[in-house]
Amino acid sequence: MRIGIVCYPTFGGSGVVATELGMALADKGHEVHFITYNQPVRLDFFSHRLHFHEVVLEEYPLFQYQPYELALSSKMVEVVEKYNLEVLHVHYAIPHAYAAYMAKKMLEDKGINVKVVTTLHGTDITLVGSHPTYKTAVEFSINKSDEVTTVSNSLKEDTLRLFNIEKDIKVVYNFIDGEKYAKAHQTECKRIALANPEEKILTHVSNFRPVKRTDDVIKIFNRVQKEIPSKLLMVGDGPERLNAENLVKELGIEDRVLFLGNSNEVEKILCYSDVFLLPSETESFGLAALEAMAASTAVISTNRGGLPEVNIHGKTGYLSEFGDVDDMAKNAITILKDEAVLERFKKNAKEHIKLFSLQNILPVYEEIYKSCSVTV
Fold it and tell me: Please, which contacts does 48-51 make with residues 24 or more away whose CB atoms are closer than 8 Å?
């Protein structure tokens, strides 16, 4: 099939999932065209079936803010026409589903019937989409999509609660390539570069937005390191990084916390880790937790959103109430203080990710494309 993928080309979960999906589809023999304002950060053009089309915003003095939706929908029309695309798979309701609907209508005037699959990822629904300014447009564009998916049952329930949705919503979990993480663990992992043999390593990966609660990450680790020799790896960047760095200085643990910035090689960093910390206020799915589990890492997280569907309490890690730093620290210490317990959680985490394997999830998306495509 010939598939267009529209996403945010960033380190966020939706962009990562969309990019990995596109590359996997190309590996299966599909022709995949990414349409966005920058090349996605994890996009690897190893396959000749992968294409990137940049959405260019022209400067025009009339606009205080450039109308990205107009440029995006026009580019979708151009790419669909030129390459005879059958499906546009848009990730994130705002602005992608809305722009896709406009592109679909423009193409219909040209006698072209392209199908639109919309995948909802989380904040586009729970934080932004439900705002009165956007709610009507988001609800409209979801209902006008040919197929709609969410990345967890929790997000599906939120979508149905917040909007009047007429479409059937399919739950298709995010996926993970376990082999990539296994290979990194075997060939790249040299813990001695970051910690002494007796030290444990805790890790956090995010875009450092307020919802990720990086201050709680630091507070949890501070409690843990008082009882267990350990280091903390903070991977990512964003608006809360400076506050996190200041809190580390305030607590006097600068020598125990490493800020590594954004990385395209998360699997190589996670292979060092014993426990992954994800005290988020909300997570529609928790892709970062799944990536950690693929690297045989136990997960300490909140019980918000889709996290209980990913992190199984008492098996792959522990779940706590949002903001309960003491409980999350206690759970981390419980895992780390006993080597046999730690190894059991690591093994369980690695085993659990098989449910979210690329081999299981990719055929589901392929079937969705085929079911709505008029040419198959």
Answer: 50/22, 50/23, 50/26, 51/83
Asked whether the beta carbons of 87 and 369 are under 8 A apart, the reply is yes
Distance CA(231)–CA(253), nearest Å, equals 10
pTM for this model (two decimals): 0.86
Which whole-number Å values give the CA distances from 305 to 86, 302, 360, in the listed order? 33, 9, 22
Residue 373 bridge partners (DSSP): none
What residues have CB less than 8 Å from 36, skipping those under 6 apart? 6, 7, 8, 9, 52, 54, 55
Calpha distance 118→143 (Å, rounded): 10
List the structure tokens of 78: 């151009």
- Can you say how many angstroms the Cα of residue 107 is from the centroid of all Cα atoms in its chain? 31
Residues 202 and 273 sit within 8 Å (Cβ to Cβ): yes
CB 165, CB 138: distance < 8 Å:
no
Interval 134-149: pLDDT, tens = 788 889 999 999 999 9
Cα 183 to chain centroid, rounded: 21
Element (H, E) at 178: helix 178-187
Tokens 């109430």, residue? 321
Q: How many angstroms separate the CA atoms of 13 and 8, rounded?
A: 10
Map residue 309 onto helix, strand or coil: helix
Pairwise CA distance, residues 224 & 236, whole Å: 21
Region for residue 155 given its phi and psi (left: phi exceeds 0; alpha: psi -120 to 50; beta: otherwise): alpha
Judge whether 275 and 336 are in contact, CB under 8 Å.
Answer: yes
- Residues (pLDDT < 70) of the chain are 11-12, 45-47, 59-66, 124, 126-131, 183-189, 374-376
Yes or no: say if 157 and 273 are a contact pair by the CB < 8 Å rule. Answer: no
Q: What residues pair up with 261 in beta bridges, in sequence order?
A: 235
The H or E element spanning position 15 is: helix 13-27
Sheet order of strands, 2-6 included: 50-54, 31-36, 2-6, 87-91, 115-120, 147-150, 169-171
Q: What are the tens digits of pLDDT across the range 270-320?
A: 888 999 999 999 898 989 999 999 999 999 999 999 999 999 999 999 999
